[in-house]
């Protein structure tokens, strides 16, 4: 049984722990800085990038608006081409389908293509519970799996690990899972990739069943698409006899022609390349080529809950590129684990509450607040999801879900009090006079420019003054100045 | 034209230099300035923390207070952004057509300071003088919510005597984020510390921005670090002249 | 109710507001994706090479020599049916197992098309290209692309391809950036990609 996100603390607590890890912060700053620069270069090559984003958003919105029809078309096309289609309401049902296929074929191991959907449903643990080993074959997923670790990024799940850590994991853990790492393995990334190649090749050649996700599922033709880099995906999609693909409901696009948007937007947003090394497409079973038994599991697991919110619905446009993670200043400093989900970063802060619902789990409720609303995420999203707007929308949903709580949170009481004090100019003026008087009594120390500063306040003010000075309130508020002199000053009145 | 100044609650109570400088600057440019005394707060802190109901009376008050002016100037990117991009949401929650109509009338008239100067008044040289080494932080809501672009820099470049130096990684958030600054204080401080480091690297005497809130955060860190860097609102620099340095009222 | 009925019912309930399906403006399909003045075939060669693949350009009569040179003396070379080329050390695919394929040194195929915008070759696994495993397991892939097969952009490629056939889009040798986002060429797929581009 691998580690899970279950039982992790809410974001602020988890973030504090992550911030204290200087090696983590170094790894993250280096990695996100690299990928941001690569993305910016290849996006600048595409002159009509903004238009492509808008049209991709329109394709997704149009598809979601008729999702039932497109899924039925997809089901019919897949069935006509020899695939078996399953539907799953939730994680447990999807895992059960995969396990049942494995049991039918008497296999005790499967090879896996990196897939967010199977991470989301906890497939590996579910299969392990049935005595079936699920081998991750993506390099980063392998690092996470061998290290008994958790993924911290959508595209690069081991982004929190540096090369020396990877070497140590390979040296100490590979042998227990199959072919051991070479004894003279260094921390050169090319050598580490070579060790993974040797370790996994025997699994690819032996495996009889593979599990994948899909980046896109074309309704009209029953075509599934997997976008990848290493060739591990091609190995899994090609060599085994049986292939099961777990596909979120929102992955459907109406026609093959629609891919001419997404195959331009995704690689440039995701890995910062003009095109990723390998994209595979298949439509059911191809006689004499690749798996001769093909299953597709259409997964809900909260997606219809997200669909039911007209404001939050565009979250389902997401194509899991992770550009929003790479530009997020909060993600850059704390990494993915603090979000307590396989979907971290800005998209995770919106998507998790959409999929799971709000008001019951403190971890989920803390996620929409894991942002300064700086808006960098919204600018890079290739399907133009208004992430900063949706972060606010999710905050509103969280607050509304707690309005009937028998004991309101201190924050709710403070907001009500602030709204009351600010609700009327006279009340605000009184409060300003009080703070001005208090300011006069406080000495503080000088700041450049002549204001005085407080360096210490009792809780909860200490949340500010722990690391930041706060200017002493001015003796005269703006409105008092306006009344006293500002109204007439320089106007000849 | 009659222009109303939206002081913002933070500007009114904590940083009166900014709205005061706005008044003096606009008067110098020959604009008839008014400060509606019924104004309090635009409701942004409540909306951004999720308290939409609590924002309703504030938005109602704001739209009432600013009825009838030719333009409303907001010396804050985030408050201008709140008016333009969030007030509709609050009006929807209020379910009151009067609020919705008021918002619809306010939105096209509300301008962040640099927008008012460049787009409405059509000036970039406001006749300011500020002989100091300055670096400018383009706050997130100015940059990505309002899309003010290089308007503030165009204004600053025309200031006499200014030594304007580029801030490294300028477009990255300072980490303030409203209630984020206390709800996730450690992350906020980590981001602010990086911003403060970039500011110090420029050797600037003064950090300028269009939002008092971000300046309060970065300035608080710089002060704690004894960095000797002063923070000033964009309005203060633009209001400053040789006869009236630093725009102090 | 079955899971299928339940999920479909949940979708219909979620869409009870009957949202409009926005129109998609396909004007992007008419725009040239290439930099002004770029030659389609030259740009293709350049962008394939950007992925650290090797590109050789030759004329039709030089093709077999160019392929032999690209193979660099590899002793056992897999060839698919319908390749229509003399290749030294050729082993014709006859239902070889994955393990058999793993024992071979290189594979030579043709392609269905090339994309200049991205430096991509697309295989659709018909005659001359072989089933998908052939171009996957051997460590060296020599791929012959005719200049007249190169299209300007991804839009053109998607329009030209038959979605029902399995496709493999190849942009350089297999690669990973999973360790510190440092790009390394050569993981599970062929570690060397050699594109022989036949002009004229």
In summary, what is this structure?
With 493 residues, chain A is of the alpha/beta class. Chain A has helices at residues 11-19, 22-44, 49-65, 67-80, 91-104, 116-120, 123-129, 139-146, 163-177, 189-206, 232-238, 259-270, 303-307, 323-327, 329-334, 345-356, 362-366, 376-380, 387-401, 410-421, 425-441, 462-465, 478-486; strands at residues 83-88, 109-112, 133-136, 209-212, 216-218, 223-228, 242-248, 252-253, 278-283, 293-299, 445-446, 452-454, 470-471.
Give an overview of the whole structure.
The complex is a heterotrimer of chains A (493), B (249) and C (200). Chain A has 493 residues and is α/β, with parallel strands linked by helices. Chain A folds into two domains: 293 residues, Rossmann fold, CATH 3.40.50.10420; 77 residues, no CATH class. Chain A is built from 23 helices and 13 strands. In chain A, the strands form three sheets. A six-stranded parallel beta sheet of chain A has the order 1-10-7-4-2-3, with helices on both faces. A four-stranded mixed beta sheet of chain A has the order 8-5-6-9. In chain A, strands 11-12-13 form a three-stranded antiparallel beta sheet, with no helix packed on it. In chain A, a hairpin with a 5-residue loop joins strand 11 and strand 12. Chain A is elongated and about 90 Å long. Chain B is α/β, with parallel strands linked by helices and 249 residues long. Chain B has two domains: 119 residues, 3-Layer(aba) Sandwich (Rossmann fold), CATH 3.40.50; 115 residues, Rossmann fold. Chain B is 50% helix and 12% strand. Chain B has a four-stranded parallel beta sheet with strand order 2-1-3-4, with helices on both faces. In chain B, helix 4 crosses helix 6 and helix 4 crosses helix 7. Chain C is of the alpha/beta class and 200 residues long. Chain C has a single domain, classed as Rossmann fold, CATH 3.40.50. In chain C, a hairpin with a 4-residue loop joins strand 5 and strand 6. Chain C is globular and about 65 Å long. Chain C starts with a helix and ends with a strand. The mean pLDDT of chain C is 96. Classes of the chains: A alpha/beta (493), B alpha/beta (249), C alpha/beta (200). The interface between A and C is large, with 100 and 76 residues. Strand 9 of chain A pairs antiparallel with strand 9 of chain C.
